[in-house]
Amino acid sequence: MHMCLKQHLRHVEKDVLIPKIMREKARERCSEQVQDFTKCCKDSGVLMVVKCRKENSALKDCLTSYYKDPAFYEECKMEYLKEREEFRRTGIPTKKRLQKLPTSM
């Protein structure tokens, strides 16, 4: 029973917090498309809506493929649960904990 309680997700976790992790991770994995689209927008200015359709749709396709992938959702959910567990144990949010560590990237 304890395990069940640990895995239980509140509405806000399912609908807000996990999708936020999914968006962040998907953007990392689609970084090439993000860069192409960003560059196109910078180069095109006002005309970006017309000129960057190809880049925009490549980016959307890439992101959507992750959003629709059940395995990717599970991966993000597990990451969230791990962070939540750690927070409950230490009282320190992951973001703050990560900021304290020297970054290797």
UniProtKB/TrEMBL annotation:
**Highest taxon, organism lineage:** Eukaryota
Q: Which InterPro entries match?
A: Cyt_c_biogenesis_Cmc1-like
Q: Where mainly located? A: mitochondrion
Which keywords fit this entry according to its UniProt record? Disulfide bond, Mitochondrion
Which Gene Ontology CC terms are recorded?
A: mitochondrion
Record carries keyword Disulfide bond: yes
**Localization terms from the record:** Mitochondrion
* Family, similarity comment: Belongs to the CMC family.
Question: What is this protein's name?
Answer: COX assembly mitochondrial protein
Q: Top-down, what is the taxonomic lineage of the species of origin? A: Eukaryota, Metazoa, Chordata, Craniata, Vertebrata
Tell me the name of the encoding gene. Answer: CMC1
